Amino acid sequence: MVRKTKEEAEVTRRHIIDAARQVFRDCGVRSSTLEKVAAAAGVTRGAVYWHFRNKTELFFAMREEATLPFVDRVVFDLNAADPLAGIEVALREIFVILEDHADVREIFEILSFKCEYVDEFKPMMGCSDGQMEFLQKLTEAYRQAGELGALRPGLSASDLAHDTFLFIGGLIKHWLAASPNQRFRSDALSLIHNHIMLRRI
Amino acid sequence: MVRKTKEEAEVTRRHIIDAARQVFRDCGVRSSTLEKVAAAAGVTRGAVYWHFRNKTELFFAMREEATLPFVDRVVFDLNAADPLAGIEVALREIFVILEDHADVREIFEILSFKCEYVDEFKPMMGCSDGQMEFLQKLTEAYRQAGELGALRPGLSASDLAHDTFLFIGGLIKHWLAASPNQRFRSDALSLIHNHIMLRRI
DNA sequence: GTTTATACATTCAAGAATGTATGTAAAGTA
DNA sequence: TACTTTACATACATTCTTGAATGTATAAAC
C-alpha cells in the first residue's frame, strides 16, 4: 500500500477519532468494535491498532476534545454591573456550545448515555476535575454577587452554587436526551433564566 | 436433576434477577454475560434461558422492581399547613428510599451508569412515564403552595417544578456516583432544604 | 542512494458469547 | 398409573472480537 506522510497520517488519526465518536454514539462504547470504527473511518483495523493501543485509548483520545471549548467560553464576569446576569450568560453559553459543536454534543451524549462506567471507566463516574473547577468558579461568582448585594439573603454562595450545579447537571442530561425542538431542548434558556431569577433580591 | 415445584421455580427466578442486578452493576449491562449471571445465581445458562428469553428481557424484569417503592412513598401532602415543607418531605423521601433499599439503589446505579442506551434501550433515554408523573405532581404541589401564599412571587408553579425536577435529577445522579459519606451523599438533605428555602416568601 | 522506520493492510489463532438442541428426572394431571 | 409438562443441565454449532503476527511499499533520515 501507499505509505502516507506524517501529515496524512495525522489526518487518518483524526478520521479514526471522528469515526469512533459516530460508532460509539450509535452502538454504545462497549458494543462498538474496532472493526466498525475502522470501516466507518475507511481504514482497516490495522490502522486503528497502529494509532491506538486499544479501544480504551481511542475512547480517551476522543474524550479529550470535549472539554476544550468550555474552558475558554464558559467564563464568569466577576466585574459585571449585574453579576447574576453574568452567571446567567455563562450558563447559557454551555448550551450554545452544545448547540454549535455537534462533535462536543455527541461526546457528551456518549458520556451520558452510551458508556458503561465499569473497570477502567469507573473512576469517571464521579465529578471530573473540570466539573469541580466549574463548581468552584460558580461559588466565587455567587460570592461576588453577594458582596455586591445582588442576592436575596438567606443562602450562602456555596449553597447557591451547589443548587445551580445540580440544576445544570440535570438540565444537560435532559437536554441531551431530548431531540431538537423537544421540551427541555427548546426551553433550556428560559429554565436558566428562571433559575437565576429565584436568586435575585 | 431434581425437578422443582412451582414455588421453588419462582425462587430461582428471583435469584436470577438478583444475580443479574449484581452482575450488571459490576460489569455493565452490555458486558455482562448470561454465563456470569447464571454462575452468580448458582444455576446454569439453561435456567436463565428458561425464565427469560434473553438478556434484554432479564434486564426489563430487573428494572420493574425499581419504581415500586416510589409511587407509594414519594407523595405530596397538598393539605399540609406548610405546603413547601410537604414538598421537601417528599423529596427527602426519595433519598431515604435509596438509602434503605440497596436493590433499588443498585438498579438506579445501573440505569445511570452501567447501561448503554442504544437499540432496544434507546427509548429509555428520555423521561420515563414515572418521571413525567412526578413532574406533574410536583407542579400541582407548587400550585397549591402558591394558592396558599407560601411562594415567593415571580415564578409560576410550572417553572418552579421544572427547576426542582432538574435539581433532583442532578442530585440523584451525583448521590449515586458518590460513595457513602462523600460530598453529595451526606449533604443531600441539606441541599434539598436549601433548594426549598429559595422558594419561600 | 542506501538504509531504516513508518503507516498501514492482511492474515491467523484463540477465546468468548450466544442461541438452540437435546437430555432428564421429577412434578402435575387425567 | 401412564402420560405430559416443567424446570432445569448439558452439549453443540455458529458467530463475533480481539490481539498479535506478518507483509509491504514508501517517506524520511543519513
TrEMBL record, chains A, B:
Molecular function in Gene Ontology: DNA-binding transcription factor activity; transcription cis-regulatory region binding
Native organism: Zoogloea dura
Keywords recorded for this protein, A-Z: DNA-binding, Repressor, Transcription, Transcription regulation
Organism lineage: Bacteria, Pseudomonadati, Pseudomonadota, Betaproteobacteria, Rhodocyclales
DNA-binding region: 33-52
PANTHER family cross-referenced by the UniProt entry: HTH-TYPE TRANSCRIPTIONAL REGULATOR ACRR (PTHR30055:SF240), HTH-TYPE TRANSCRIPTIONAL REGULATOR RUTR (PTHR30055)
Residues in HTH tetR-type domain copies: 10-70
The protein's name in its UniProt record: TetR family transcriptional regulator
Alphabetical list of InterPro entries matching this protein: DNA-bd_HTH_TetR-type_CS (IPR023772), Homeodomain-like_sf (IPR009057), HTH-type_TetR-like_transc_reg (IPR050109), HTH_TetR (IPR001647), Tet_transcr_reg_TetR-rel_C_sf (IPR036271)
